[in-house]
TrEMBL record:
This is RNA polymerase sigma factor 70 region 1.1 domain-containing protein. It comes from marine metagenome. Residues 6-26 form the RNA polymerase sigma factor 70 region 1.1 domain. One of its GO terms (molecular function) is sigma factor activity. It holds the Pfam family Sigma70_r1_1.
Length: 26
């Protein structure tokens, strides 16, 4: 479960970074 949580937080980090750059719009 911890591994999945870590992966999830990493994905959300990437999504947030993408949002800042304007690549992703979720």
């Amino acid at each position: 479960v911890d591994k999945l949580k870590k992966q999830g937080s990493r994905i959300t980090e990437l999504i947030e970074k993408g949002r800042e750059q304007g690549y992703l719009t979720y």
